[in-house]
Protein: Ubiquitin-like 1-activating enzyme E1A
Organism: Pholiota conissans
Amino acid sequence: MANLPEPVAPPTQDVISTDLTEEEATRYDRQMRLWGIEAQQRMRNATILVVRLKGVATEAIKNVVLAGIGKLIIVDDENVNEEDLGAGFFFRDEDVGLKRLDAAKSRIESLNPLVTVETITDTSTSNEGVLEAIIKTVDLVCVTDWNRDGLIRINEICRRYQKPFYSGGTYGLVGYIFCDLLSHDYLAPDRSAPKDQPKSVKTTANYTPLNSAILHQWSSLTKRQTKEINPALFFAVLAVWQFQSSHGNLPNDTNQTDELESIANSLISQAQVNQQVLTKEPRELLQSLSITASHEFSPVCAIVGGMLAQDILKALGGREPPIANFFVFDGNTGGGTVCRMNMP
């Protein structure tokens, strides 16, 4: 388990004079030197809701708790199973059969005693009306390893109450992050400023909900742009989502490769992807997904979860541009890419 960040120097008087307590100023001194006191205060005042505690959420939670958010609410009503032990470092062998959150809560709290951790294991939380009541009270929502249709509905609830929304997950060696930050303000470098006098300017990015993003048309991209983005990974995720929506479960057999291939190729055609770059989905990628999509691999969860946490902190801090708006990761190559899907 990761150690708490250690201060590199005693807090200055200016730090102590802010709304942060002396203990917070000492604990977060190193990171405040990186992103500033105001960003740290925004994190400290934020309440984040995380839905489902699988491998990606485990890594993301570790990082946002260590960074010093104010309150973390986790919703999960499932029990620890043996596979959870591979990517869920909050769990131990003796936890199998216990509620995930009952097993993990004290270990999450030990990462940073300054963060309030609330866990909700009531099975009624699978009811979206109950989730809606929780969403009203938080500042940001993060849903992990969820199905497409559920993500769309929760995203719609977040939009209703103007709450930034993140989702992320892995399917074997493939991972993704999607975010809908509504109308998001952040600081960006002023390219018109002299090089010896760097300045930042306030910039606004207008995001789009998931149900719109997945209908993105790729025809506006040049051949070079399309190739750089590597659309095959995006359509692999979209194909898995469509399969799961149709069957109620993830693919788990090589015999399902043909169906995944049919779904992916249909989506590629509908999205008008440049045919000089991609005419059909690589079969070897779909073969891998057909047998690994329902399994977690710890290194992939760590990378995707780490990036998810980093982006959440960027969004809260408002000092750097967050993901806009769909990121995919390929554990086969170790590379990832971002596409602006239906964003203005």
Observations:
- Strands lie at 47-51, 71-75, 116-120, 140-144, 165-171, 174-180, 183-189, 200-206, 326-330, 335-339.
- The first strand starts at residue 47 and ends at 51.
- Confidence is low (pLDDT under 50) at residues 1-18.
- The CA atoms of residues 35 and 319 lie 7 Å apart.
